[in-house]
Amino acid sequence: ISSPSGEDAQFECDVCVTKPNYNSKRNEFVLFINQRLVDSTPLKKAIDHVYSNYLPKGTHPFVYVHLRCPPENIDVNVHPTKSEVHLLHEDEIIQAFRVKLN
User: Are 65 and 30 in contact, with CB atoms under 8 Å apart?
Assistant: First the structure.
């Protein structure tokens, strides 16, 4: 997945997700941004929302995401351990995920 032409959000992303016939009771979401393991609640919720149309209620896919974007587009001051991040242009990134995963 990469940023759509003409968008302000500049990013590239590799995504591996399980097919809808695999599901787990646990939400298994692995996110690397610029080669650092982090967490992003909005991205996790967006992917879960897309899969909620295909999976039984209360189950989740396994998702691996490696996102590359300019460091200035990442806000690491969300959590004291710097493990939770927010992204500039987060809505555009989430929309690109929704389009590709649907």
Answer: yes
